Amino acid sequence: MIDSPLDLCTAREALRASPEDDFILERYIAAATAAVFRYLGWKREDHDAASPADQVSVENAILILAGHYYRSPDVDDAGAFSHGQLPWMVTAALYQMRDPAMA
Questions:
Q1: Burial class (CB within 10 angstroms; exposed 0-12, middle 13-18, buried 19+) of 23
Q2: For residues 37 and 56, what is the distance between their CA atoms, to the nearest angstrom?
Q3: What angle do CA 71, 75, 78 make, to 5 degrees?
Q4: Is residue 58 within 8 Å of 48, Cβ to Cβ?
Q5: What residue ranges do the domains of the chain occupy?
Q6: Among 23, 42, 43, 79, which residue's CB has the most CB atoms within a 10 Å radius?
Q7: Structural contact between residues 39 and 98, judged by C-beta atoms closer than 8 angstroms
């Protein structure tokens, strides 16, 4: 499983999830971490070398996306993102960190 900067206990508390949901929540955190790192073109080492402010932004983006997976695993009721895209709240938190050459 991917090494996420967001730990399970923090995510569970923030999402008010039950410990019974830990199995699926761990997978949502891993999927969200992979999506966020892929969007940024980062590896875990890049997160560790980032400024504290950027680290918090990345961790919040992972939490937002994992929360979306957790709350709406089958449907995008709010139209939060189109196919192949991240929700706007995630990209808003990350956009300034993205390498312009990748845009």
A1: exposed
A2: 14
A3: 80
A4: no
A5: 26-102
A6: 42
A7: yes
Nearest to 14 by CA among 23, 6, 24, 5: 6
76-97: pLDDT as tens digits: 555 656 666 888 889 999 988 8
Nearest to 76 by CA among 55, 84, 12, 58: 84
DSSP state letter for 98: S
Quick one: DSSP state of residue 101? G
How many CB atoms sit inside 10 A of residue 78's CB? Answer: 9
* Model confidence, pTM: 0.86
- Would you state the torsion angle of the CA atoms of residues 41, 68, 81, 31, taken in this order, to the nearest 10 degrees? 30
Report the pLDDT averaged over residues 18-26: 95
Helix locations, the chain, DSSP H: 8-15, 22-40, 44-49, 52-71, 88-94
Tokens 């560790």 correspond to 48
